[in-house]
Amino acid sequence: MKRLGIIDIGSNSVRLVLVDINAQGHFKIFNEFKETVRLGETDSKGMLTAEKMQTALETLGMFKTICEAVRADEIVTAATAAVRRAPNKNEFLTLVYERLGLRIRVLSGEEEAYYAYCGVINSIDEKSGLIMDLGGGSTELVHFEDGVVKNSISLPFGAIDVTRMFDTSNSVSAATAQALRRFLFDELGKVNWLKDLKKNIPLIGVGGTIRNIGKIDKKSKDYPLDMAHYYIMDPSSVCSVYEQTKDRTLEQRIKIKGLSKDRADIFFGACAVVWHILEYCRIDRLVVSGSGLREGLVYDYIGSSYSPVGNMLDFSLNNIISQFNINRVHAYQVYKLASSMYVQLEELFGSSRECEKILKTAALLHDSGISINFYSHDSHAFYMILNSGINGLTHREILMSAYAASLHRNTKLKLKWKQYSQILSEDDIRTIMKISILLRLSESLDTCMDNFVEDIKCRVDGESVEMNPIAKKKPNVEISRAINTRHDFEQVFGKKLLIQ
Amino acid sequence: MKRLGIIDIGSNSVRLVLVDINAQGHFKIFNEFKETVRLGETDSKGMLTAEKMQTALETLGMFKTICEAVRADEIVTAATAAVRRAPNKNEFLTLVYERLGLRIRVLSGEEEAYYAYCGVINSIDEKSGLIMDLGGGSTELVHFEDGVVKNSISLPFGAIDVTRMFDTSNSVSAATAQALRRFLFDELGKVNWLKDLKKNIPLIGVGGTIRNIGKIDKKSKDYPLDMAHYYIMDPSSVCSVYEQTKDRTLEQRIKIKGLSKDRADIFFGACAVVWHILEYCRIDRLVVSGSGLREGLVYDYIGSSYSPVGNMLDFSLNNIISQFNINRVHAYQVYKLASSMYVQLEELFGSSRECEKILKTAALLHDSGISINFYSHDSHAFYMILNSGINGLTHREILMSAYAASLHRNTKLKLKWKQYSQILSEDDIRTIMKISILLRLSESLDTCMDNFVEDIKCRVDGESVEMNPIAKKKPNVEISRAINTRHDFEQVFGKKLLIQ
């Protein structure tokens, strides 16, 4: 195992993320610290001020102590725009090196964009998109198509700059808002490739402000999940957050539910950037990414030292399987059998095809709850799947996987789904039920957890479904347990189940 | 690590529990199987029937296959009353040994009582009590005082016998109920030591029926926790379950919420035994134990091969700490500091003293949620503590520990407590808040997770509380973080906080 400290010196905050990486290259964040240093609040010449440098030094000293205390094997320290742009950056770098022995890597705008891309592409399942990393002192834009970077740019202004230029930390007049919009449209106008973006790609937002926009929107909608990552908003919702902050004073802004105090002064400026980019590029959805620069640094580190991440969902699932000592052989056997049934019973899933990812997640993690407690482990699987930060699934897919897994022993919906009706439709519930029946059958067919059943042949025959488990010897025990599912099978699929 | 299969051949069901025991003697149940074989339904001469023996043999064969498939290092097979009493038990034992190579250990009534006692005494924090293990074919009673067994007896009838003798599987007339009551009072009257039981000791019930009584009661009261173990009922609630099953037919009984179908026929007879023992001994509460014979066999195995369990709460907490790779040094440091503050600030806790166990649990497990996800790990700690099956705490104590831990970073009650108002009072909530403040302070004082602060001196001085951390060097970082808690401290304790 390798223990890594990642320090990210931004224009707004300085952060430390502590990460354990295991032999397979799976990683786990186990602590995080943030100090709002505001290094980006430079003097009129753009110089880092002595005061801010001192605060940053103290924070870095504390972070170094923490890294040493937890016995980190390596500390990766990266600085972005605030340091990059400062004419006196060398003074700061020397100070930090001499006092603390920390070598700060100053990222170029291109590198900053690249790491944000790494953070996103390994955690959000979108083939194409425009990534925006909105920092305090710069804004990175990366356009990728079919997983390949097409263009990227680092715009030399961020939330702090915009706030200062247009004095937006307090209530903003219509004229100022208009001027800010014009400025942004002008700046975006200089980026030629932005004009040729295809429609229907999402804006994938990285950074504290964007998570904050998501949070405000979720609060206002009583969104039932406490997940920042992969939250999706339509432009009008972003506009509404923009509008409701515009007229308010700083004091009033602080009271907005979900808006973090540390950020209240620069929030409107940042929000304006997000909203106007959506407008300018005529993009139809904002995807909030909880994973960005810091995670990108981790993925890059893993990729260079271990085998690359590959499929992000598989990576996440295997990460969880190894972390919680889930019986991998049994998990994959249940997945294999359920998947085989799913393919053969295609017609019974009707319009609810495209559930491969849900089936895989639910099957591989159906026993994940055992790590909390064997008793009620089906309910615990629900909690685990919902909360363990699986990458590559939308909130709806996570929720469906969690429900399906929670029903792998009993087809009674103990967990009331109405509270999730913003996310799940009645159709989704029917699909969940169907998947869960396949899990129960597969679980029964691996009662002895010994891969005894090699495959299963399924055939829809009028009003019934015939299943024939294939094994070296007739799997009597397994069949007798599987057959207990027949009543629920009939209820869910509307067909009789025959197992021979 | 040792992997153990425990097979329990009861009169009603045959069960397999799979357990992993680590080097420290901590164990975890990772799978369980149950088949309702009803070996106790013997013929008129009390002989095990050929049919039941055959079913038992098949079940045992399946269990053995499962044990082999999961590579159990050892299989412990124990049989209770049904086999013990049967004149033809040797036929059965020989059959099983010849066919499967399994040697069944037939427990005497005393041994059966002893193992139930082991299961209870290691998981329920009661100094004295009357344990009742109500099986299909016998009923064990164990009286212990200050942790020492005073008397025990194995009564030669269980749920199946009573059901047969009085034909109670369907609705029961008043006369039959009266006859059953008279029979039980007569039998209990023969046990001399039962007459001398002190008042105020609980009846601690072990076995499926008793868990079932608890479940029915919880359903009827909309009890907010899904925990069988350590659920406490007053006699009138047991009586009410008894009364509501008495008149009903088998069909109607099956529909009672919480009553398991497998047990519906013998449930009334069993329930009558529980109720009449409560009546006869004039006991004022029934404590449901989820831990009994099988767990007792595990504890006994551990005790003979590893160091003994000792304090059950410590054992549970250390079990969880090692299972989830919680930073043990940091956890114990937070506990040490919080505990020191708690002792010194006694007067501020007023009537809510006696929270040592809650403080310990919350402090040691405050970071347990990180194993699920670092983000929102305070909320995950709530779930973990509530669900990981900690022994030695009542439901109220578990809930209070969970809440206190969930507030270790922020004193805002995100998790609504009104749903738990059956269990928690407003006073309890105030205590939770106070404990959580101590946790936050201790967490801050161990920011670098390096045990830098050795102790803390606290003094209540009129309207303020002074705290002085003791360390080799002045802990500036730690103090500056701890001081952030002052507003919440003042709100919760009604005193100003000064840290120097």
Automatic annotation (TrEMBL), chains A, B:
Under Enzyme Commission nomenclature, its number is 3.6.1.40
- Give a yes or no for keyword Hydrolase in this entry: yes
- A GO molecular-function term, please? guanosine-5'-triphosphate,3'-diphosphate diphosphatase activity
- Per UniProt, residues of the Ppx/GppA phosphatase N-terminal domain are 21-302
Q: Which principal EC class is assigned to this enzyme?
A: hydrolase
Q: Does the keyword Lipid biosynthesis apply?
A: no
User: Where in the numbering of this chain does the Ppx/GppA phosphatase C-terminal domain appear?
Assistant: 316-445
Domain of life, source organism: Bacteria
Alphabetical UniProt keywords: Hydrolase
Family statement = Belongs to the GppA/Ppx family.
* Protein name from the UniProt record: Guanosine-5'-triphosphate,3'-diphosphate pyrophosphatase GppA
Protein species of origin: Peptoclostridium acidaminophilum DSM 3953
Q: What is the lineage of its organism?
A: Bacteria, Bacillati, Bacillota, Clostridia, Peptostreptococcales
